[in-house]
Amino acid sequence: MNRSIVHMDLDAFFVSCERRQNSKLNNIPLIIGGGDRGVVASCSYEARKFGVRSAMPIRMALRLCPDAKIIKGDYELYSSLSNTVTEIIQERVPVMEKASIDEFYLDLSGMDKFFGCYQWTQEIAAAVTKEAGLPISFALSANKTVSKIGTGESKPEGKRQIAESEIKPFLNPLSVKKIPMVGDKTFQLLSRIGIRTIHTLSEMPVLVLQQMIGNNGKELWKKANGIDENPVVPYSERKSLSTERTFATDTIDIPELKRILNGMAEKLAYQLRQEKWLTSTIVVKIRYSNFDTETKQSRVAYTSADHTLSRVALELFNRLYTRRMRIRLIGLRFTDLVHGNHQMNLFEDTEEQMNLYQTMDYLKNRFGTDAVGRASGFDFGK
User: Fold this and answer.
1) Shortest CA distance to 268 belongs to which of 346, 327, 337?
2) DSSP secondary-structure letter at 234?
3) Residue 371 has pLDDT above 60, yes or no
């Protein structure tokens, strides 16, 4: 059976959410992000014409587009509207994967004999715009890679169908940067040997690509040739991330308890970033030596940043530990997770903080999660 895979992507999602709330923001250059030292979380198409892009420092964005209006952003609003869109799509399709806060894959394979897949997808997109008040683009093709590239080439508010026979002619003239797994470093590596279009990449020997970029070489070659067997994974939200530590001997060593809690926050925050989650609720738990168990929680703006999560966790511990009694267990949980494109809190974090986290995560990925961390999370006496 031929596959029918749709990729749907909400156009300039954060910007569209703000314009939905305030029509005065329509048709002007708009940047969603942190303060003067922060970065761009999203920007309108009017700002993109000046070269403004996501993750760009706000200062640079304003040099390119000095008339742009900056809004800090409301992740609560974005999360709520994302859930609304999710429900609209989910109730209309047999299989849906939520790839991020603003993009979705649908598997409509076999449904064309009941109802034309392209017409069906058009009606879903129209329902999103009508019921959620948000513009959305989509592409329908034989697999996830081609559909995702097709959506990117159709934005904004684009609709595209790429039949099996049209896949190669569609992909061939495009830049290799259009392939989802190609980042800046891979693009620069390929460019140095003259590979700039998908057509050139598709004709490269697989073994040569594997020697150049490792195990991903074969996968990259397959995508350049329009081959992608990855399934659409049915959507399910992860509810929480948590960790606990039970002590062999009950303790009243408060500095040590805080060090452990800080280390827990750092490791869970790293896991959030690796899995592309943001959390808005922090819960600290302690169990006393008499087995009494108490918890406290606090809500924050959606984030995956160590410094925010550690600070709140320690504040909760200070409020929670009110008895002069030994502790048997300490635990930390992050809940109310949202799965978004942005691994960092682009609304609050500065460019320097983002660079720090990216460097720390790179070292952890390469040398292990204990290879690097904040000084407050280490015990230098042991």
Assistant:
1) 337
2) P
3) no
Which DSSP helix (H) or strand (E) runs through 121?
A: helix 117-132
pLDDT digit string (tens) for 41-94? 899 999 999 999 988 899 999 999 999 999 988 877 888 899 899 999 999 998
Output b/e per residue, 129-145; b: 16+ Cβ within 10 A. Answer: beebebbbbbbbbbbbb
How would you label 308-347 residue by residue, b for 16+ Cβ within 10 Å and e otherwise?
bbbebbbebbeebbeeeeebbbbbbbbbbbbbbbbbbbbb
CA distance 286 to 281: 17
What residue ranges define each of the domains in the chain, with the CATH number in brackets? 13-74 (3.40.1170.60), 172-227 (1.10.150.20), 240-365 (3.30.1490.100)
Q: Which of 18, 103, 219, 348 is catalytic?
A: 103
Could you confirm whether 103 is annotated as catalytic? yes
Polymer length in residues for the chain: 382
